[in-house]
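Give me structure tokens for this 192-residue protein.
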Amino acid sequence: MSRIGKRPITVPQGVDIQSATDGLLTVKGPKGTLTRQIHPRMSIEQEDGTLLVKRPTDGQQDRALHGLTRSLVNNMVEGVSVGYRRVLEIEGVGYRATKDGNGLILSLGFSHPVPIVPLEGINFEVGQDAATRRPFIVILGIDKESVGQQAAVIRKLKPPEPYKGKGIRYQGELVRRKAGKSGKAGGKGGKK
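Here you go.
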């Protein structure tokens, strides 16, 4: 039994859900509108402020699609009502991000600045942590997949390296550090 698929989805006030006969689901809310093609074997029922995803049989594929469909629909409802955000921290001397219209320009130690064009429906905010004075990027959007994809594309430009920890990381990401080389004490090295 899919425990995720059986859970009802609560629909917040101000969110309108329309399901077409061809499986196209449209969710409208205060933040925007999302549409998604739902698998034809899954059905969505609306009952007094909640949504239920139903499956036709207990076959393996139907059980897998049941939980997946419920999660996708729940992400749509949450996205149009609250929205999603992902924070990236930038660590390194001279590494910074500046906003350029809708996009970003990143200085990451390369010989050139790196321009970032946002995906559709994505907005950026750039700031600096008051305590550590490290720059950070906030990625905002209503589609969870797009927000995660944009964050992954930016992080891939300069992933954190294990020796000094320089690079772009997700907020709260733990980067395992390595010790590096250890030289001999006393200054006497080499062959005689």
